[in-house]
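quick one, 147 residues, struct below
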Amino acid sequence: MAYDRPLPKPNSDTKPFWEGCQRHQLRFQKCCHCDHIRWPPSVICPNCHSSDAVWIVASGKGMIYSYVVYHVAFHPAFKSDLPYVTAVVKLTEGPCILTNIVGCRPSEIKCDIPVMVVWDDSIQGFSIPKFKPINNPTLPGGAGKKE
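---
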């Protein structure tokens, strides 16, 4: 069965991020001058304009900053996932990332709840970072049951 969902299109800026995802690592650029950790990657730091940066591995933990529950699929290939949650997660290290929240009912999601990265390896050639709630009493291990 062919994969019919939109796929990431890595470029020279995002290639290290996607290579890290293949290893189940969230990687972000860190400025060598001011230590700002940034996403999305760029050739210069948005804080100090330095072009010196290294890639770091993030903890994969953060909090839901904002979210939306989709009841109508954004793309026809996502129809079988309805309802699904798309969220902005603010990572412990500082950057925000747009992602999906999985492992719980959409009604259990609230802003500011702690989440951790989980990996969707169902796509050949990509591991997609998604997030699930942690410290959720619905199930042992932190994730609630999906509707």
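The chain has two domains: 11-57, 60-147.
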